[in-house]
């Protein structure tokens, strides 16, 4: 008889980990060490489930690179003991964490599945139980003794997505996340249907490597009609600034104000890296299409192609932390590291 799957659940915090007190109705964190008491159906899976609970559990709005490192180190320490990992996380910053983790792991050959809930697990109509149970099943799923989904991914409301392709699109719908520019990795209906052609498999087979350095001296700059010079210039002159994600219009366009282009060019001369992504939910940056985008390209702004904001900012932070030179960072920004860009 085959050994039963072993899954490590890492509870960082978030809505999923709440129960409602019967008298007061107040929501309080559940003791996730005893998650099988709260969700007895987990016992029917027949898996070896272990839980690591972060203390204190955090609201995901308080997520930081230091906590990404804590999650990654927890997985690294336990990597050889478990078949897969499930990270329970608040929805507000889940896309950022999933993107960051995808860059941090090299030679990953086991599933790392993030999930959470829009309603606490202690609420009668919670979406948390189904999300948790199915995420665990996906983390344990194997074919020919190999993990079916050996990448960082997010399971939510019957869909499994690549972690660095999602954005949170709804504050209170059970379908909280979307992946406009990349198809789902799996659909969970009566059965879990995996789409093998969409799943990333590491090209290198070897020991897991975890890179934990991030540089937080970055900013996201979203263009809007009427953006003033004083604001724009102040942002580009933040002391210690190393990188800027430009959220531009359409396919990579910005206003044609000469002062704006001039300020960007001057910042690039100071070795500040600019990464251009679109504000649109879908599609990609193509800076050669219109005049303003073309000027940015000639100035040295890097195209982020079809990256999400979450994937772009975490990738910039990650690459700045790796000790690479200026041109190496720009080269890596422009190509797909782990499936975050459509080739």
Can you offer a commentary on this structure?
By secondary structure, the chain is an alpha/beta fold. It has two domains: 6-210, 3-Layer(aba) Sandwich (Rossmann fold); 218-333, Rossmann fold, CATH 3.40.50. The chain is 27% helix and 21% strand. It contains nine helices and 20 strands. It has helices spanning 35-38, 65-78, 94-104, 128-140, 229-236, 258-269, 291-299, 309-320, 326-333; strands spanning 6-11, 18-20, 27-29, 48-53, 84-88, 105-106, 112-115, 142-143, 146-147, 152-156, 159-162, 167-168, 177-178, 186-188, 192-194, 209-210, 218-222, 243-248, 273-278, 302-303. The strands form six sheets. The chain has an eight-stranded mixed beta sheet with strand order 4-1-5-7-10-11-14-15, sandwiched between helices. Strand 14 (186-188) and strand 15 (192-194) form a beta hairpin. Helix 2 (65-78) packs across helix 3, helix 3 (94-104) packs across helix 8 (309-320) and helix 5 (229-236) runs parallel beside helix 6. The longest helix has 14 residues, at 65-78. The protein is globular, with a radius of gyration of 21 Å.
Strand and helix layout:
Layout: E1 6-11, E2 18-20, E3 27-29, H1 35-38, E4 48-53, H2 65-78, E5 84-88, H3 94-104, E6 105-106, E7 112-115, H4 128-140, E8 142-143, E9 146-147, E10 152-156, E11 159-162, E12 167-168, E13 177-178, E14 186-188, E15 192-194, E16 209-210, E17 218-222, H5 229-236, E18 243-248, H6 258-269, E19 273-278, H7 291-299, E20 302-303, H8 309-320, H9 326-333
Parallel strand pairs: 1-4, 1-5, 5-7, 7-10, 17-18, 18-19, 19-20
Antiparallel strand pairs: 2-3, 6-16, 8-9, 10-11, 11-14, 12-13, 14-15
Helix pairs in contact: 2-3, 3-8, 5-6
């Amino acid at each position: 008889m085959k050994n039963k799957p072993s899954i490590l659940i890492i509870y960082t915090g978030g809505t999923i980990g709440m129960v409602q007190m019967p008298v007061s109705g107040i929501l309080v964190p559940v003791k996730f060490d005893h998650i099988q008491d709260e969700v007895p159906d987990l016992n029917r899976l027949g898996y070896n489930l272990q839980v690591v609970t972060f203390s204190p559990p955090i609201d995901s709005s308080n997520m930081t690179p230091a906590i990404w490192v804590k999650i990654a180190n927890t997985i690294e320490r336990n990597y050889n003991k478990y078949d897969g990992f499930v990270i329970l996380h608040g929805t507000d910053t889940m896309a950022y964490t999933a993107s960051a983790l995808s860059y941090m792991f090299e030679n990953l050959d086991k599933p790392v599945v993030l999930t959470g809930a829009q309603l606490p697990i202690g609420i009668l109509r919670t979406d948390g139980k189904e999300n948790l149970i199915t995420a665990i099943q996906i983390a344990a799923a194997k074919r020919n003794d190999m993990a079916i989904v050996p990448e960082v991914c997010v399971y939510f409301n019957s869909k499994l997505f690549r972690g660095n392709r999602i954005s949170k699109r709804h504050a209170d719908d059970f379908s909280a996340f979307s992946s406009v520019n990349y198809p789902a990795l799996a659909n969970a209906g009566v059965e879990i249907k995996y789409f093998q052609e969409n799943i990333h498999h590491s090209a290198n087979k070897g020991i897991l490597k975890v890179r934990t350095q991030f540089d937080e001296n970055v900013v996201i700059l979203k263009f809007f009609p009427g953006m003033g010079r004083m604001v724009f210039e102040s942002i580009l002159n933040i002391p210690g600034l190393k990188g800027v994600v430009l959220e531009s219009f359409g396919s990579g366009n910005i206003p044609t104000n000469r002062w704006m282009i001039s300020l960007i060019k001057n910042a690039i001369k100071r070795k500040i890296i600019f990464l251009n992504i679109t504000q649109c939910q879908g599609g990609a940056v193509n800076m050669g299409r219109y005049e303003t985008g073309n000027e940015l390209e000639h100035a040295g702004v890097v195209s982020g192609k079809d990256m999400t904001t979450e994937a772009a900012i975490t990738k910039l932070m990650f690459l700045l932390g790796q000790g690479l030179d200026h041109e190496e960072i720009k080269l890596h920004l422009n190509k797909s590291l782990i499936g975050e860009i459509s080739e």
